[in-house]
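User: Quick sanity check before I run a bigger batch. Here is a single chain. Can you write out its predicted 3D structure?
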Amino acid sequence: MSSPEDLEQRVAAVEAELAIVRQEAAAARALAAGADRDVAEYRAELRGHTRLLSALRETQLEHYAEHKADTAELKAGVAQIVRLLEGLGGTSSPDPAG
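Assistant: Done. Predicted structure follows.
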């Protein structure tokens, strides 16, 4: 059996170790809280980037649709100019091949 002095020393050692464990647990909680804040900030920033990219995509799709419509309008205009020029030449246009 252990003597009362040994028991007192062991209890004192456990109490000292318990104080260290409490300090380490408090430090771990502080680190976890900081990490939680960091993760929340990164998530908020990621949501902002995602919204920005979605808005950019929508803008690009709108610009593409406008470009496509403008191209179709240009093609129609060129075709009309060609028809008008062909009408000016009549049927007696000289054959460049001879």
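The radius of gyration is 41 Å.

User: Great, the batch can go ahead then.
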